[in-house]
Amino acid sequence: MLAELVEAGSVRPVAAAHSATRGRPARHFEFDPGAAAVAAVDVGHRSVRCLLTDAAGRATGYHRIEVPVDSGNGGTGAEARLEAIEQVVLRAAPAHRDPTAVGLAVPGIIAADGLLAQSLAVEDLVGTDLTTELSARLGCPVAVENDIKLAAYAEHHLSDSPSDIAFVQIGHRISVALIVGGRILQGSHRLAGELGTQRGMRWTRSSQRAGCAGPPGTRPRSCSPARWRATVQQPRRSTASARRSRPASRASCSPWTPRPW
Q1: 65/85 Cα distance (integer angstroms)
Q2: What is the DSSP string of 97-155?
Q3: In this prediction, what percent of the chain has a pLDDT beyond 90?
Q4: Residue 169: what pLDDT?
Q5: Contact by Cβ (8 Å): 46, 66
Q6: Which letter does DSSP use for residue 211 in this model?
């Protein structure tokens, strides 16, 4: 087995330490971090970033490409964006060191068939089979997932967080991802945590809530701070009401009570 691993490049022999005992000295091997390179690509509205690491997770290269955005339709075109993703990976990799695998983080909903089903940030890639398209361009396996879900999984994997966490990002949009039992919770339609798909959110292409732009005095009542506070308080009132009802309802609420993390 060791001979096969050495031939594959996964391990390499090292010099054996001097031994005072008699007999044939044991052979020593070590894991070779340079056996593989993994590219992590973050696709954004105006840029594409790539971090290249070796098999031990140590960074070996980085590159960023700005993507011009057409002010007319807010997009840049699927082909131009795919070309930017391909180029950022190739430029991040050192000479003669193409990645063994690529992980792609995309701001959008990835359907069960692998297609990008919905996205406001990269709308020009909607309907594209990113896995198949980029695998053919880069000549290696490509895995695609929602960017916030990957961020939540990284937080869970690299920290001492418990197996169940709720990851919330507040930026141009409010994004949520759930890790349950140490795994990303996708939901039956892969929409778990996708607040922008819920009725009443009304996210627009400009990443602002519809009708909420402009001076405070000109905004509708639905955008007032009081209305937003009422929206935030509603789940708390619903949870409190459920706790006062049947024991089964109280039990269903218990996992969502604050924990001393």
Answers
A1: 8
A2: ---SEEEEEESSEEPTTSBEEE-STTGGGTT-BHHHHHHHHHTS-EEEEEHHHHHHHHH
A3: 32
A4: 86
A5: yes
A6: T
Residue in 181, 188, 117, 170 with CA at minimum distance from that of residue 146: 117
Q: What are phi and psi of 250, to 5 degrees?
A: -65, -40
Tens of pLDDT, residues 178-219: 999 889 988 888 888 777 655 555 545 544 444 454 555 555
Q: 45-54, 69-78, 137-146, 205-214: lowest mean pLDDT where?
A: 205-214
Question: What are the strands of the beta sheet with 165-170, ordered from one edge?
Answer: 165-170, 174-180, 183-184
Half-sphere exposure of 17 (CA within 13 A, CB side): 3
User: How far is it, in rounded angstroms, from Cα 227 to Cα 200?
Assistant: 13
Half-sphere exposure at residue 132, Cβ-oriented, CA atoms within 13 angstroms: 7
The answer for residues whose C-beta is within 8 angstroms of residue 148's C-beta and 6 or more apart is: 107, 167, 169, 175, 176, 177, 193
**Helical ranges in the chain per DSSP H:** 2-8, 78-92, 130-138, 147-158, 225-243, 247-253
Instruction: Say if strands 37-43 and 101-106 run parallel, antiparallel, or are unpaired.
Output: parallel
Higher-confidence residue of 95 and 47: namely 47
> 37 with 52: CB under 8 angstroms?
yes
**Torsion-angle region of 141 (φ positive above 0: left; ψ -120 to 50: alpha; else: beta):** beta
- Amino acid letter, 133: E
Side chain identity, residue 169: Q
- In three-state secondary structure terms, 223 is helix
Tokens of residue 172, six digits: 């141009």
**Spatial separation of the C-alpha atoms in residues 36 and 164, rounded to whole Å:** 31
pTM, to two decimals? 0.69
| 135 closest CA partner among 86, 88, 94, 194 | 86
